[in-house]
Amino acid sequence: MANPAHSATSAAPGHDEGETRRDFLFLATAAFGAVGLGSAIWPFIDQMNPSADVLALATTEVDISPIAEGQSITVKWRGKPVFIRRRTQAEIEQAAKVQDSELPDRQADASRVKKPEWLIVVGVCTHLGCVPLGQKVTDPRGDYGGWFCPCHGSHYDTSGRIRKGPAPKNLDVPDYVFLSDTNVRIG
Known about the structure:
Layout: H1 4-46, H2 52-56, E1 60-63, E2 72-77, E3 80-86, H3 89-96, E4 118-122, E5 145-149, E6 154-157, E7 162-164, E8 176-178, E9 183-186
Antiparallel strand pairs: 1-9, 2-3, 3-4, 5-6, 6-7, 8-9
């Protein structure tokens, strides 16, 4: 006949060994499943990153030497139009004399430009995302000589600040740096 004390002690070590083995198999299976799940969903997460053509447009360099005083050009940056205007002395003076208290979105002209003769703004109306008119000599420039958005009647001044109409904010000023007197990098 078997000794009951001996069989109880012999079952205990086997029982612990089974739990340890079971715990290891459970953890190994969970880890394998997590790695498999991660590798399965990675392509979906990675496709949300910007494409190579968008990353290439993160910055753009512009030669501003051919722009005459009073002339504007439009360049594309991050899929948006950017207006670069070489302002006349009259436009600079007109923008500088405006009191902040007259503006819906208060911002001094000096805080919007790095060199007074060059104004660089994102050419997207802050009301509903239209592209304002005013880049061509023949375009209407609104009541303040800057840009005019005909969709809903927003008027911007020669500093790209909203002066009249439903637009809540001034035209955005992108990050930019003058690389030289004739080159500027936007972005």
